[in-house]
C-alpha cells in the first residue's frame, strides 16, 4: 500500500464499523438494493457490492496489511515499532481507508445529484459485467496497451481480464 505524506482522514477516530454503517446508510438513501459490505483479511480487501439503476456495482478496496507497520518515524529516524504501536498504526490505516471509501461513494452520489455526471459516468469502472469482472478490470489493461503502443484497441475484449 502506497503511503503519502498526508492521507485523507489521517487523524480520524471514526471506527471502521461506523464507516461501514454509514456506507450502508448512504447506499440505502440512494435506493441501492440489494447491497453488501464485506471484508476479507485473508484476501486483503474489502468489497462493497450493490444494485442500482439496474446494474450491479462493486468497489474493491485494498486493506492495510499489519506486516507493513513494523517501523515508524521518530524525529526523522526510522525505528522498530513495538507490537502495540504496530497494531495502533494498522488500526488507524484501516479507519482511514474506510473513511476514504465512504467519501468516494458520497462524492459520486453528490455528483449524480448535482447533474455533473450520469450514473454510468460516475460508476462505469465499477459496473460488474456478465462474466463477474468489472468494466474497469476489462478496460484498464486495453487502455494501458493503447497508450503503450499508440494504437486504439477494443476495450471490452473476450478473454481473461487482469484484476
Query: Strands across the major sheet, in which order?
Result: 1-2-3
Judged by helices, strands and strand pairing, the structural class is alpha+beta
The ordered string of helix (H) and strand (E) elements is: HEEEEEHHH
Count of discrete structural domains: 2
- Helix coverage percent: 25-40%
Number of strands: 5
User: How big a fraction of the residues is strand?
Assistant: 15-25%
Q: Tell me, briefly, the overall form.
A: globular
**Biggest sheet, open or closed, and with what strands and sense?**
3 strands, antiparallel
Give the overall average pLDDT: 90
Q: Kindly, what is the distance between the CA atoms of the first and last residues, rounded to a whole number of angstroms?
A: 16 Å
Question: How many helical stretches?
Answer: 4
The Rg value, from CA coordinates, equals: 18 Å
Task: Outline the low-pLDDT stretches.
Answer: none
SSE arrangement:
Layout: H1 16-29, E1 35-40, E2 45-52, E3 55-62, E4 71-74, E5 77-80, H2 83-113, H3 119-123, H4 135-149
Antiparallel strand pairs: 1-2, 2-3, 4-5
From the structure above, extract its key features.
5 strands; alpha+beta; globular; 2 domains; three-stranded antiparallel β-sheet; 4 helices; 163 residues; two-stranded antiparallel sheet
Explain how this protein is built.
With 163 residues, the chain is of the alpha+beta class. It is 40% helix and 18% strand. It has 2 domains: 16-119, no CATH class; 129-163, no CATH class. The strands form 2 sheets. The protein has a 3-stranded antiparallel β-sheet with strand order 1-2-3, covered by helices on one side. A two-stranded antiparallel ribbon has the order 4-5. The relative contact order is 0.13.
Amino acid at each position: 500500500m502506497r503511503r503519502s505524506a498526508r492521507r485523507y482522514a489521517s487523524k480520524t477516530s471514526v471506527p471502521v464499523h461506523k464507516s461501514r454503517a454509514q456506507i450502508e446508510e448512504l447506499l440505502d438513501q440512494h435506493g441501492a438494493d440489494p447491497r453488501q459490505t464485506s471484508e476479507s483479511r485473508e484476501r486483503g480487501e474489502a468489497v462493497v457490492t450493490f444494485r442500482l439503476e439496474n446494474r450491479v456495482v462493486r468497489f474493491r478496496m485494498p486493506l492495510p496489511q499489519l506486516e507493513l507497520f513494523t517501523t515508524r518515524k521518530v524525529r526523522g529516524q526510522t525505528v522498530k515499532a513495538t507490537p502495540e504501536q504496530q497494531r495502533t498504526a494498522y488500526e488507524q490505516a484501516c479507519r482511514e481507508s474506510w473513511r476514504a471509501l465512504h467519501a468516494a461513494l458520497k462524492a459520486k452520489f453528490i455528483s449524480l445529484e448535482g447533474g455533473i455526471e450520469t450514473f454510468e459516468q460516475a460508476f462505469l469502472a465499477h459496473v460488474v459485467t456478465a462474466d463477474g469482472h468489472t468494466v474497469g478490470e476489462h478496460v484498464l489493461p486495453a487502455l494501458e496497451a493503447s497508450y503503450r503502443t499508440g494504437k486504439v484497441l477494443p476495450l471490452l475484449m473476450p478473454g481473461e481480464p487482469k484484476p
